[in-house]
Specification:
This protein is α+β, with helices and mostly antiparallel strands. The chain is built from seven helices and 15 strands. Strands 3-8-9-7-6-5-4 form a seven-stranded mixed beta sheet, with helices on one face. It has a three-stranded antiparallel beta sheet with strand order 2-1-15, with no helix packed on it.
Length: 338
């Protein structure tokens, strides 16, 4: 399967909820089945997706006369997905030996006024810089290029094509996985997340459809960094900074929808994948405690006391009650004996 889906390119670094940026999000996004971005006023909108990255093209490029060519070298083969921000294509690089496949994410802002475009350009460039930094990990897609088409006022990310199936196929509804398999899956995801958090980045949209089981070696690859937010030093102390909340219902915790994602927000998402795997129930269909806001899942799964406690501490409603670091979760998972 081709798993280059579509998700939010336009929320990378320090997107504050000013009237301009709120308008940017509301007007550029449309509702999507897989992921939603919740604007500060509660509007439900859609997100984009991502996959891979490498050498940035820092100068704008002119549009090719061939409508199937982007950036003068990338031939579009077919559409992989589309969303409120633009389209994701499967393409081939005509200037590399063998014309290897790649993924192109096209962003076309909904408005063309200069102020709007300036914000879009800043966020796009920040997104690309983050992806370029994270792409050094072997289980995160590589950024190959990014460029702007000045004539059409469109932005493009070119990413490594990852062939494989999402782990959604490994988590069918009504099927419960053994806890030893679930624990290993969580370890695999958390090892990648550890690298991401060490680079001061919150993914913000971890879910089964954004995790590919790579066909070449069977390892998982974390994709869809369209929602990433880089944490600047001032954000660690200044709690007044508000960002547009991006995520997916059931996998995203309440503070994320309030526009205040933390590192533990990603931990929550990974924990909910574990709960889904153990119960065979998608997260948004699980019962919620009216007293605490916590998900009531323990009586729906066959799980040991030790592993159950780890998962509960990953998916607490209140983020101060959760694990605060990926390293702490991994340490406790290593202590399990099945």
């Amino acid at each position: 399967n081709d798993l280059q889906t579509s998700n939010d390119l336009l929320t990378a670094n320090d997107l504050e909820t000013t009237p301009v940026t709120s308008s940017l999000i509301r007007e550029s996004l449309t509702e999507d089945d897989d992921a939603t971005a919740i604007a500060p006023d509660g509007d439900s909108t859609a997100v984009w997706d991502s996959e891979t990255i490498v050498q940035p093209v820092t100068t704008p490029v002119k549009k090719s006369k061939n409508p199937h060519i982007r950036g003068g070298r990338y031939k579009i083969n077919r559409i992989l997905g589309s969303g409120g921000f633009g389209v994701t294509y499967l393409a081939e690089d005509l200037q590399r030996p063998g014309k290897p496949k790649c993924v192109i994410k096209q962003l076309k802002p909904a408005r063309q006024d200069q102020k709007f475009l300036a914000i879009a350009r800043r966020l796009f460039n920040t997104e690309a810089e983050i992806l370029e930094k994270l792409g050094s990990h072997p289980q995160i897609p590589l950024l190959l290029a990014y460029f702007e088409d000045e004539d059409e006022r469109e932005f493009y990310l070119v990413e490594e094509y990852v062939k494989g199936d999402s782990i959604s196929d490994e988590l069918p509804v009504d099927r419960r996985l053994p806890e030893i398999e679930v624990a290993q899956l969580l370890k695999d995801i958390l090892e990648i997340l550890l690298f991401i958090h060490k680079n001061s980045v919150i993914h913000r949209d971890i879910k089964p459809s954004n995790i590919i089981r790579r066909e070449a070696d069977g390892k998982i690859v974390l994709i869809d960094f369209g929602a990433v937010k880089e944490i600047q030093p001032q954000h660690l102390t200044n709690q007044e900074n508000v960002t547009v909340a991006v995520g997916t219902r059931g996998y995203s915790p309440p503070e994320q929808y309030a526009g205040h994602p933390t590192f533990s927000s990603d931990i929550y998402a990974v924990g909910m994948i574990g709960v889904q795997a153990l119960t065979g129930i998608v997260p948004h269909q699980l019962p919620i405690s009216p007293e605490t806001g916590d998900v009531n899942w323990r009586n729906l799964a066959d799980v040991s006391e030790e592993f159950g406690k780890i998962l509960e501490n990953m998916v607490r409603y209140n983020f101060p009650d959760r694990y605060q670091s990926v390293a702490a979760v991994l340490k406790d998972l290593e202590m399990l004996h099945f």
